[in-house]
Request: fold
Amino acid sequence: MGYYFAKKSTNLRSRMRSFLMIFFFVISIIALPFSVHNNSLSLTGITISKTQAWSAENSSLEDYTDRAEKLLFAERYNDTVELVEEAIDKGGHKSSMLYFYLALAYDNLDELEPAMANYKKAISLNIDKEELVVSLKSLGIILRSQDRHKEAVKYFERYLKLVPNDPDADNIKSYIDYFTK
Reply:
């Protein structure tokens, strides 16, 4: 699992489990009058096709980021990739958060080249500090795993400037020192 989720998993997983249990209970009660037939949703005679219910052209950036975040927390990485690529390609939404979520999904799928490209894109679009920190460290880790040490050092140095008291700071500093000599 990617660093972003490993770090937050303790708090978020317990909260997410509680939330999901309540959410699915409420949805099961609400969904009783609904029926789904042949790719459509029906409620008391009103039918909406799935494509009408969700389309790239009619969805806002916030809709996409909310859905992508939920898919990531559900560990549905392929679905996250599909959704975010749709948001970027069809919806015309190009935001740092979408690229960050796309990077996380690819990272968790062990597709490292697209993960790196999307972390870099997210960074270039002025991502928020929390996501920047995760992106920098993740890029350093991926590059290190590919023996691209000089590039990894660059991202780890930027990371340590933002998070000097990271629990891994000593290890990262040792790595930087070893490959900058």
User: Anything to note?
Assistant: The longest helix spans residues 3-30.
